Amino acid sequence: MHTTAPVSRRAVLGGLSVGALTVGGASRAAAATPQAGAPVLPDPSTVTASDPADLGVLEAASLLQARRLSSRELTQACLDRITARNAPVNAWVRTYPELALRLADAADTRLSSAACGSLGAAPLLAGVPVGLKGLYAVKGLPLTASSKTLDGSSGIFPVNIAAGDSTVWARLKAAGMPLLGHTQMSEFAFSTGTPQTGNPWDTTKSPGGSSGGSAAALAARMTPAATGSDTGGSLRLPSSACGTTTIKATYGLISTYGVLPLEWSYDNAGPMARSVADVALLLSYLAGADDHDAATLAGRPPAFYPTSPTPGPKPLSGKRIGISNSPSDGSLSAGILAVLARVKGELAALGASLVPVTSPVDPTTTTAGMALVAEVKTFHSQLYPARAAYYTPFVAEILALYEGENRWPPLRRSRSLPRAVHGRVEPRLRRRHARRGAPADADR
After folding, report:
1. Could you report the per-residue pLDDT of 327-340, keeping only the tens digit for each?
2. Per DSSP, what are the bridge partners of residue 246?
3. Which one of 133, 139, 173, 377 is the catalytic residue?
4. Is 308 marked active-site?
5. How much is the pTM?
6. Beta strand 163-164 with 24-25: parallel, antiparallel or unpaired?
7. Residues 12-296, CATH architecture
8. Which is the catalytic residue, given 234, 239, 284, 414?
9. Active-site residue flag, 234
10. I want to staple 12 with a disulfide (CB 3.0 to 4.6 A). Which of 5, 108, 207, 258 is the partner?
11. Is 173 a known active-site residue?
12. H or E stretch including 408?
């Protein structure tokens, strides 16, 4: 197993004035890309998009691997599409044209070397551009979570610059993906909308949130791939609202090292694209153990997830799919209920067993709600109330409310602490980390 020297989680997320968000160092992500069992790409002769910016991940990979398209051409097409379409949508916090084209040129060199046999096979994602949600650390670039508390616009507090790469970006960079930019999100991922971003299908409507910028960028075909995060729906809701695709993976399948947290006991990183096959390929490069994130150390994912259905008329045979009980209070429209009924019929026809599922108790009334308050308060104590005036009113109101929730136990007594991004680690917990193989001063 490839390893690197352990690096403090605090050392990656940038340098806030209180010193609790500094992130640095490389993650365990740059291992050689496995090719065994790789999915079969589409025949390049069948890929007919007239503009490269319209390509999906697998389609782009097919043309890139066949050298019928260069990464520079594809990346430039995406940058041109952003210029043409982003203004009314506002899906991007910032873009990085020079960096994107530099990484595209590196991918082209890698693909050419692989084609002529001087190197091993290039990763299937090599040359395919990607956008990152605005809470993923990229060394040397702003890490601001769509918040004026971190973006330098206050004129008082400096812009927060990441001192190292998040594991997700390190893995995508190792796979050869050019970075187009950081996408918009609700401030610190606090809400299920992204108010500064319009839905490309109707810009007066919400793209959902908190990963709304990534979903909007995909729906407007400004990028073939993106990342998001999900604590209570923030990958799934915007994908639904914008007609794109995602997967909220099992907790711990994808590292959240170098990702600004909302509630680290529930935060999940995840891929976003325009098809299930594209998301599956992205997941193949993101999943797996990370020495910086103890939650990822259990299990071993496959080298590649399938990008096509099992052959035969019943590809879902043997699969059990939970179907949540539909509310009976009339809150769902007849149109939505009709779509749900149709989907259930299609799943059953494909061989799946449908299992009724009763929704659990509202988590805000359980210990999960206690953890939410404790973890949010702990992370934002670096910024609130010192920068209270620079939060959006919505988030400031939440933090003011949580400020009065003193009955919750302090986070430093929580077993979730190894995933924290702050500076308060008790010596007792330091010793426990050291026994698990972490350095004594690690704050994971």
Report:
1. 766 788 889 889 99
2. 272
3. 133
4. no
5. 0.84
6. parallel
7. Alpha-Beta Complex (3.90)
8. 234
9. yes
10. 258
11. no
12. none
